[in-house]
Amino acid sequence: MCKRWSKPKFDAMEKIKGKTTALVAYLTMIGALIAISMNNEPQHDFARFHARQAFGLHLVFIGFAILISQWGGPYAGYGLYLFYIVLWGYGFSGALTGKKQEMPIVGPYFQKWFTFIK
Question: Do residues 22 and 47 lie in contact, with contact meaning Cβ atoms separated by under 8 Å?
């Protein structure tokens, strides 16, 4: 018997199905909202995890961008963009490789705060 065409495990299929939704979540705030709605009908744990991470990251970025634009100095925006790009890359690479890795510092809070994302 040939084992070349064996079926993948159920967990691997779940990650693959939720991977597209997880990747869409990292494409701006609108992408995060689209990913949340994409994950409503067939709910995937992997997609839910990354939707929470991406939604939180985009929300924090927009909130701090508004604050910095009003009261921040000229160089405060550079720090915000650096923070955003590093965490975005970390989260996007995790979604791309199929890993559920929380973002440093803020990731556990996003999972706790955004439990309404199912």
Answer: yes
